[in-house]
Amino acid sequence: MLTILFDGIAYGMLLFILAVGLSVTMGLMNFINLAHGAFAMVGGYATVLLMQRYDVPFLVCLPIAFVGVALLGAVLERTLYRPMYSRPHLDQVLFSIGLTFMAVAAMDYFMTSSQQIIHLPEWLKGRTEIGDGPWMLGMGHYRLFIIAICAALTIGLQYILAKTRFGSRLRASVDDQRVAAGLGINVNVVFLLTFAVGSGLAGLGGALGAEVLGMDPSFPLKNMIYFLIVVAVGGTSSITGPLLAALLLGIADVAGKYYIPRFGAFIVYFLMIVILIWRPQGLFVRKGGKA
Amino acid sequence: MKNAMQSLHDLQRWKLWEPALWLLALASPWLLSTHALIINEIAIVALFAVSLDLILGYAGIVSLGHAAFFGMGAYAAALFAKLVMPDPLVGLAFAIAVSTLLGAVCSLTIMRGTDLTRLMVTMGVAMILMELANKLDITGGADGLQGVIMGPLLGRFEFDLQGQTAAWYSIGVLLVLFVLARRLVHSPLGGTLKALRDNRLRAMAIGIPVTSRLAVIYTIAAGVAGAAGGLMAQTTSFASVDLFAFDRSADLMLLVVIGGTGWLYGGVAGAIVFKVMQDWISSITPQYWTFWIGLFLVVLMLVGRDRLIRPHTWFGGKKS
User: Fold this and answer.
1) Do B135 and A266 touch (CB under 8 A)?
2) In angstroms, what CA-CA distances link B237 with A121, B74, B76, B138, B227?
3) Chain A CB within 8 Å of residue B52 CB
4) Is residue B277 part of a domain?
């Protein structure tokens, strides 16, 4: 029981890291980026490659995945994404689906379609059990590691958003782009940085999640739906919204698959549709922000 | 100087090339008898595209889960043939009825929220149906529904292996439903749909009942998509889980956009281009054809999809 809750939280945290970049870019630029999963995949594959071919330690791979994907995101933002901001949503959706298709086929070509396995270091492989009976809590060390990293990142992001100058510029741009630009904030640079960091986080999430979610070329298609659920349910105006949504989704998914394996994924989709009919703007929407 | 009534009538009058086109379509299984199977497939996809165009191009509802109705129609037709009676036309009517019903229920889900909400909800419905088809016993699970045997069409024409009967059957159904859809979009209902696509607030202000109009068109489009799915199941004698797959909805959206939205022939044209391209590219690189489709999409979107069907704006055109 507690173990399921624990695994659910770990999964939810992972989903949050993967989806938070998507949430920010969607709130900031009103851009529906279905290619977000592809960035996560790049991060995951980079880690796998570095570890297998060049024996880079796992802990070093994580920052490399983050920086590498962030750079990639920055380049793509500048060259491909920027002209798409002012287009209708339909164009954006098709554009990013196209990018995803390309990424999937390219990965298939370079890396073969088989699933990649990540070899964790020894100290992450164990499992600690506390208590017994129905309240036994079994914690895989790797999941504990994921939760720790994600919690640290969440606090860091929240701090940057709430306390720093960049954070207030970002929030100003989200609230009203034109007024922010009029006040002398260079909105383009804010966009660029945010997009890069968001993609970088996705890359980091992909690297962390390669072991849990599995890493093969269909990764963006399989998991993108989950990211979108997190964003749609959590709303795009804060960090806590997607966080709570991701935790809810993670716990619901793990518990659903454990207790009713026959209808595992069914529960998640059903929950999402009910929530979105009930609150179409997402569960945690700030009052007064632009819709 | 024509008055407004006159110009509206002119819009809906059958052009000279339209009957010619349809005659050509009806003759194609006979002219290209070795390609009857792909002609059949094109007709089905074209019907499916017309269905999406009704909601996307005319009512402005974005949907990434239109395959839900396609799959529903396919499973309904296949199960009907297997369990009740093998007559194709009755089965098709049943498939349309079931998916129309599903569309009426689902139309409740697309009324509120933003584009993102609608994308998610439509996709969610397709995913739920996919899970159901995967897990229920009656649908045969992941193996798909096998052992569907169709009776002869109209009691006379057997479905043959080359697919000529199937192609004529699909083109015939496409023609009938296309004429109905064409009638629909030029009716006052179609006019109000375009009005609320362009500006929902104004449409509301001049007294168009937005919610009920959206529900009506969504339900009709679901029925048409169900017909396409039913045709698919009947002509291939098979229904499988991947009928609901996300790729199918995404591809469909792509081909409607290639052909041009808000124009019924756009869906048909897109279906032809897309299927021929798919056939051609995947004969060169079977595994990686999605890469080229993706590249095509990205370039198309960067250039702007309006300009594809207006070649005179390609050079020296001002960016809109």
Assistant:
1) yes
2) 51, 10, 12, 16, 15
3) no
4) no
